[in-house]
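Lab notebook page, bench 4
Experiment: in silico fold of construct C2
Operator: M.H.
Input chain length: 110 residues
Purpose: comparison with the prior construct
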Amino acid sequence: MSFIFDNHEIKTDAEGYLLDQNDWSEDLMHYMASLEGLTLTEDHIIVIKTIQEYFNTYATTPPIRGLIKILKTKGLDNLANSITLAKLFPNGAAKSGAKFAGLKKPIKCI
C-alpha cells in the first residue's frame, strides 16, 4: 500500500506502518495520526519520541510495561500508566506509538 504525502509516495504495509523508516518526519507523524482520527498533543509526542529512543537503543519497540517503566524513570508519572496511555492511543499505545514513530509493527502486537 502507499499514499502521497508532501509530493512523495509513502509506502506502508497493509496496516499503515511505514516500510521505510527514512520516510518518517514529524509532519508525517501528525498526518498519519489524523488518518486515525487523532490530533497529537505534547503528551502523544513524548510517548512517540520515547518509543523512538528505545528503538534506537535496542532495535525493537518496548512492551507496554517497559514503556510505562521508562516514562516513570523520566519523571513522567502523569503518562506512566496503562489507563492514560489507552486514552491517548485508543488503538493501543505500543501499536499506534510505533506506527506514528515510523517504526514497523511491534512483533508481539496482534
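Observations: Helices lie at 26-35, 42-58, 64-73, 82-88, 93-100. The first helix runs from residue 26 to 35.
Next step: discuss at group meeting.
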